[in-house]
Task: structure prediction
Amino acid sequence: MTYYEAHITNLEVEFFKKNLYALSNYEVINSLIKEVSGINSFFSNQNESSELLENIKEYNSNVSEPDRREYGDFQTNKDLSSLVSNYISLKRNDFEFLLEPTCGKGNFILASLELFKTLKKVIGVEIYKPYVWETKFKILNYYLTNRTESKPEIDIIHGNAFEYSYKDLAKKTKHLRTLVIGNPPWVTNSELGTINSKNLPNKSNFKKHNGLEAITGKGNFDIGENISLIMLRNFQNHEGMFAFLIKNSVIKNIIYDQKGNGFNFNKSEKLNIDSKKEFNVSVNASLFLTSFNNTPDYICRELDFYNKNHLTTFGWYNDKFVYSVNDYDKSNSIDGKSKFIWRSGVKHDCSKVMELAQENGHYINSFGERIKLESNLVYGLLKSSDLRGDKTNTYRKSTIITQNKIGQETNYIKDKFPLTFNYLKSHKELFDKRKSSIYKDKPDFSIFGIGDYSFARYKVAISGLYKSTHFTLVYPDDLKPIMLDDTCYFIGFKQLKMAQIAHYLVNSDIVQKFLKSIIFSDSKRPINKDILMRIDFEKVFEYSDFLKAKENISDLKIEDWEEFGESLKEQKSKQMTLF
Result:
């Protein structure tokens, strides 16, 4: 049978049948349950116990499922909960206090009760009431089955994880060896906001992003990260451990921000799980395990959860945040500041209008419209998926470039290029519907990621979306430069030989090893400007050899090589674009 959508086993039903009289007085039945299972305040009022009494008499059930997204509801199955708890027990098994701030259906609590026999106090908090009941009934069933086992004091609380007073709880339990365990929601605040969820913290800039960062997406924080930081902040000075199933991006952020947050934990481990297998979702997630109340080491060992093979050690090394300490140790000599400014490509957020195929002298948009345009503002366009080869000057799509720099007026198009203007005007409503605030109060048909650098004849480019760290040399189409979209990054050059040398250098062994040592390949956008700006071309050039370069670059002359080297010796404060 079920009660508040929680499943009740026959053993529990028999227990309540034997004590039907007590259900008519919730304080009496609470006392009986406390004696059997250690759970405090099983029923919070008389209505709850009376309703169970009626359910038992009628033995009916009515089950409905919640919207999993609202609660980030990827419940940890029993087997995974046991595996996690068993692994924790190999580190230590003397815990006296267990806290799970989003306990769901209670599988972690059950696994811990079975394994950690020194527990004196257990607290679980859960926002979804049917799960609160499910957890209570599971605990009751466990102790009805194992009546001789010692019972800790247990509180399963119906409440919002963000509203519970953990600061007070931490003070009261400071003397107890502590395990904070759980699987908090794998969603962001914006995802919950779209479905009007109440499972949100009070609005605050808890990562202290500036206004622009908040506008462009960095303010969209992960709910699991917020809960993790609350736990670490309040319980870091306890003797014990922290064990959360969380997204890989959250684990990376926790280690990255550890110095700034001043958290006292070390011996951190990230154990990669198969979330498709365990939760039937495509999310990169892991078990994050760390020890409280220790001198921080600011690194984290990454392992496979199932075979425990060591994959890498990431974190802070010589004041740099790296993915592989070992690889970085071999390549860090080129870690510095790039003399070339890496740029992202063109952003327009109106691909159905702005991106065109070409056929028999006509352009064709995503609506299938055949369009006649002046060719002046139409440029070849490469996307991340196009940057696979060593070099290219071919493209599948073209795009309309309405501005030479950000904010430039676009009125000139009407007079100089009437066909293009009429086409853009016919779809003006789509431009006006673009959601990003970057287009607010800007000229009609505005684009971003545009400047003098966009019109460089030769470009050394890389995709920001894929794991590959290979760079492609982009040649012009005849004499017209080819554009890249905003998923790509590039540096531009006027002269072919300068571009070829730069292309050779970034594909060299030491740069490739360096990039692999600092790139977290499971990130949403593994390669970004911050990563690329760490390539110190001056140091790479010093590390490289002209004769080896000559083997890779046809007709390379020593004069070209030396000219490139001299260009890198300009004032260090002056970053270069070389086009």
About this structure: The radius of gyration is 30 Å. DSSP finds 25 helices and 23 strands in the chain.
